[in-house]
Amino acid sequence: MEKAITVKNITKKYKLYNNNKERILDLITRKSYGEDFYALSNVDFEAEKGDIVGFIGINGSGKSTLSNILAGIIPETEGEVEINGQASLIAVASGLKGDLSGRENIELKLLMLGFNKKEITTLEPEIIEFSELEKFIDQPVKSYSSGMKSRLGFAISVNVDPEILIIDEALSVGDKAFAEKSLNKMREFKERGKTMIFVSHSLGQMKEFCEKILWLEYGMVKEFGTTEEVIPKYEQFLKEWKSMNKNQRKEYKQKGLERQKSC
After folding, report:
1. Is the distance from CB of 86 to CB of 164 less than 8 angstroms?
2. Of the four listed, 42, 138, 175, 192, which is most buried by Cβ atoms within 10 Å?
3. Where are the domains of the chain?
4. How confident is the model at residue 258 (pLDDT cuts 50, 70, 90)?
5. pTM for the full model?
């Protein structure tokens, strides 16, 4: 089958500084300041067209970083990413301009995606209707709640009909009725054979939608396989993680970071 996404040895490195002075010195001197932090380290995976891949892992595992790289929001430090088709990221407030109204954000986003004025005129009322923002559509986005921002972002992304949909915790905010409406749209996309990346802490949603699971742990691939293979292992891990005290979790994390450095 044709590949929709190919990720080879992706690494994303950030610098952590103790203060602004270190940040400036790191830019203007030859001496290296700050501590290297690897959000991702040598990540590999592939998704074929029509695949629905779930990203799982505890907080800080690199799920959102990888999602943003796939969507072209941030660049990788090392490695290669091949995307075969238009990718659209749905995340709370992703790409929204706070000083612009919801309507202006719709028009700006559609212009950036290459839609002409006639197409925007057709799509805009459909997006507004799906978002259910009604009178708030002409208010500045900075005044929106996180749920309202999620509604707007989801409405824009699904109505532009992308080939690859990347959903990062966008269904975790807002009311249940809109979440169910969004899930129905995802079910429709699934039936149409869309490629989807789904990031969520809801294992129930993962089991319903995803055929494959990428389990990330401290920026590295812990497991990649079918939902039936990976989810039970992750559920067992979560039981063990929840039973750990603060010091045990800290020790587990330290061991994970040491494995990351040795790779």
Report:
1. yes
2. 42
3. 1-53+60-85+212-263
4. confident
5. 0.83
